[in-house]
């Protein structure tokens, strides 16, 4: 396993194109396999997570080919067309790949066992398994809520109405994908809206799907089963979660100004940028435009004086992957940054509340960790970090990248171990960050 050392830096500058969005990349392969005909996917994120999804689909009979860098073709054979028995699908580090594919498997006459790495094998799966059983899927080997899990799907699923207690795009998408094979309508109720890339992509391909706000301020997503999905090409916008690393680096590093191009600014993904602006960040959105049903823009960020604020639970779903890097921005803020209602962070690639708090405490920053909230006590613009520390990423790409960004403002270098998983979402992170001036050193 590799380690990276991050050294104090200043004057970050230049333009960066971060890789394609991870959520949309997974969906373009998974939903692409259910259209009837060939689609081209441009700017696919070629990360380990997405490649695991491509390999799993191939094992179940889908023809998927790389044409050139980041340009792929997917031959969709229609809804319910996955095939095979005894498929062993290694989903690596990817919760999205595993959970979404389980939904598609539930709606095909196919049998598959899902396995994953040490981190994925600890993540909760009951949230997916319970609704999929309601759609008619048969589940075997289901112990302790975790992988490995064997699923036997059926070509026609039962239409269900399911109320999820968590706002999770993975749960919602898994049910919707199973619902593609239903005669009738499938609906899911969420406590607040999670990212809606599945809904947008299904609509783009021609499905009838609508989202309504209920009187109790929950949300209901309704899909008509067996839609005819047209083969249309997809351009994957750049990933806002990956963009958050150069953006926060520019905000906290002296004399910096960085522009990140073509970023997906779907409002269910931009909670971090909204929060940073409320904290005083100089962030500008330029050249907003639409691309296959998704809004994109170029984002400029420059060195800013930040103030701690309270981030309400209602914003959590729109920035769920960005709390580790927000915590790094919060270190440089004046006052406390209070992140409310973030319990879901405990079920990500690692317990992110624990990892962030432990890491920050190691560098001398005070944090408070309750069951469902996290507080970072900012050191302010004049404060200094000067401990020589080594951080273990706990096989979590976002923890690794976040602490490398913290190293940019630390008097002594910060070493981050187990950085290989960065490849699961942000290939060439090191090179791209070095190009704008970050002093990162691969060991
Ligand atoms: C994802 C949804 C999020 C996010 C994950 C990607 C997706 O999880 O954390 O990285 O692509 O659907 P939940 O919405 O399930 O919390």
Overview of the molecule:
28% of the residues lie in helices and 27% in strands. With 443 residues, the chain is α/β, with parallel strands linked by helices. It has two domains: 4-20 and 237-442, Enolpyruvate transferase domain (UDP-n-acetylglucosamine1-carboxyvinyl-transferase, Chain); 22-235, UDP-n-acetylglucosamine1-carboxyvinyl-transferase, Chain. The chain has a four-stranded mixed sheet with strand order 22-23-1-24, covered by helices on one side. Strand 4 and strand 5 (71-77) form a beta hairpin. Helix 2 packs parallel to helix 3 (95-106), helix 7 runs parallel beside helix 11 and helix 9 (323-331) packs parallel to helix 10 (352-362). Shikimate-3-phosphate is lined by residues 23, 96, 168-170, 173, 194-195, 320-321, 344.
């Amino acid at each position: 396993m590799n380690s990276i050392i991050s050294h104090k830096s200043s004057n970050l500058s230049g333009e960066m194109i971060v890789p394609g969005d991870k959520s949309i990349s997974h969906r373009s392969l998974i939903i692409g396999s259910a259209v009837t005909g060939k689609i081209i996917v441009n700017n696919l994120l070629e990360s380990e997570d997405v490649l695991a999804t491509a390999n799993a689909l191939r094992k179940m009979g889908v023809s998927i080919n790389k044409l050139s860098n980041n340009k792929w073709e997917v031959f969709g054979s229609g809804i319910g067309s996955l095939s095979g028995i005894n498929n062993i699908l290694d989903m690596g580090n990817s919760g999205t790949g595993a959970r979404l594919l389980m939904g598609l498997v539930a709606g095909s006459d196919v049998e598959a066992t899902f396995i994953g790495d040490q981190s994925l094998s600890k993540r909760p799966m009951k949230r997916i398994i319970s609704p999929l059983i309601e759609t008619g899927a048969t589940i075997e080997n289901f112990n302790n809520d975790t992988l490995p899990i064997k699923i036997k799907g059926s070509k026609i699923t039962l239409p269900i109405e399911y109320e999820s207690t968590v706002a999770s795009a993975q749960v919602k998408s898994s049910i919707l994908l199973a619902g593609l094979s239903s005669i009738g309508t499938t609906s899911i109720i969420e406590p607040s809206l999670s990212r809606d890339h599945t809904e947008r992509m299904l609509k783009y391909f021609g499905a009838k799907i609508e989202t309504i706000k209920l009187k109790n301020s929950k949300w209901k997503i309704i899909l008509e089963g067996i839609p005819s999905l047209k083969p249309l090409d997809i351009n994957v916008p750049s990933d806002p979660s990956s963009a958050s690393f150069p953006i926060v680096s520019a905000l906290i590093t002296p004399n910096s100004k960085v522009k990140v191009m073509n970023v997906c600014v779907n409002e269910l993904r931009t909670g971090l940028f909204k929060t940073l602006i409320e904290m005083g960040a100089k962030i500008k959105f330029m050249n907003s435009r639409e691309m296959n049903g998704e809004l994109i823009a170029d984002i400029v960020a420059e060195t800013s004086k930040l103030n701690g604020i309270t981030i309400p639970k209602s914003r959590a779903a729109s920035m769920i992957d960005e709390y580790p890097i927000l915590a790094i921005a919060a270190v440089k803020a004046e006052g406390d940054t209070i992140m409310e209602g973030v319990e879901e962070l405990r079920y990500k690639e690692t317990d992110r509340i624990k990892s962030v708090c432990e890491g920050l405490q190691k560098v001398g920053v005070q944090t408070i960790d309750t069951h469902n909230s996290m507080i970072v006590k900012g050191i302010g613009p004049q404060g200094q970090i000067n401990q020589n520390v080594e951080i273990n990423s706990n096989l979590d790409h976002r923890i690794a990248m976040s602490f490398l960004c913290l190293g940019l403002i630390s008097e002594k270098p910060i070493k981050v171990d187990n950085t290989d998983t960065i490849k699961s979402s942000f290939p060439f992170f090191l090179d791209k960050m070095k190009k704008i001036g970050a002093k990162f050193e691969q060991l």
